[in-house]
Amino acid sequence: MSNDGVLRNLRRQHELRVLAILVERGPCSRRELENATGLSRTTMSAIVADLVRRRAVADDAQRPATGRGRPTTLVRLNPHAAAAVGVELGRGHVSVAVADIARTVLAHVTEPIGMESGLSARMDAALSLLERVAAGRRLALEGLAAAGLGLWGHHPDPRAGGGDPAGDLVVTDLAERLGVTLDAPVTWDNNIRLAAVAERYTVESPACADLVYIALSHGVGSGVVINGTLVRGASGTAGEIGHVSVEPSGPPCWCGGRGCLEQYLSIDAVLGRVRAVAPDVADVAGLVAALDRGDRSVRDVVDWSAELLGRALGTVAILLDPHRVVIGGELADLGDHLLGPVRASLARQKLSIRDRRLELGTARISQGAAAVGAALVALDRHSPIHGIAGAPAELPGTSGQRFM
User: Fold this and answer.
1) Could you tell me which residues come within 8 angstroms of residue 190 by beta carbon, excluding any fewer than 6 positions away?
2) For the segment 291-329, what is each residue's pLDDT rounded down to a tens digit?
3) Helical (H) or strand (E) element with 78
4) Is the pLDDT of residue 109 over 90?
5) For the sheet containing 186-190, what is the strand order?
6) pTM of the entire structure?
7) Can you give the C-alpha Rg of the chain in angstroms?
């Protein structure tokens, strides 16, 4: 790293430390910030001036004077200042999330995009969406500490403990473009793993330390969090439950296996079997409607799919003993139509070597969760602030979804 790069990184660390103190203590005077950080008056003056210029903080508050002294000018956090941005490039949608330095999610918005769109076009759409969201909600993006990128497929960031150190050139280009646009360091990972991170924090404090997130969408993927840590594995592909064989004599899969779960639990696979008995079911919403009205033939198809999912989850439960298994993706809309028979399948397997308390439920963020996870992972990786004081914050537009 060049001398300029070293100095810039040091300046960023000083800025983050100042922001951390403001999160923990509330508005502070410049002298209080100098004492807390050990920085000189000149350095602190320059840092605060730059943070004010970038709208990360404001210095418009005052503490009343005591005696005959003058009121003290205080530096405070700008409630509209972003510290991290998360971008998800999904198969059929793009999503952006904006979080502040206290890990409060200030915005989270998802828009559909055509399945035929390439990654570059998806990034165009995501950046346009972010620009509109920031303008509409008056969010300041000038002082970002980090940005995160989520994509489908296997594109682990080698700096995060997975993937080829040479990197995926297409994804590296996308990450560099995002970093240049936002003037922030970028980390990236698989969408499903990032959704698992988001799900970990969308519960009341304390966050769930052990969970498995399973996405039933156009493919079947999962993310694993153990003892609060996202598990990536030696090659960055940990948690590929979609390629667990549930029918050893089943058809060959593109991965080289046979009878993989993805061949039976993807949207197209489930709808294909449903249409064989109920041709009028065109999509997941139609499938839910058929189940709601008690269509027995459709019910049988879903029960069989749930049995296969239950078999795979039985293996997961034995190996990992998670506290919670979360079902996300479009097929999570089936709710108890799917979860009920999955629970029955698990019960038939008699998994309890001990008193196993496995919770099974649907994801709290229905779509675009990876954008939230990407912002949080990026903030954890590039910010030295961990476990700072303050209550968990609600995800905008939701009820009871909280972030540490």
Assistant:
1) 150, 151, 152, 153, 154, 155, 156, 221, 223, 236
2) 999 999 999 999 999 999 999 998 888 888 888 899 998
3) none
4) yes
5) 105-112, 93-99, 84-89, 146-151, 186-190
6) 0.78
7) 24
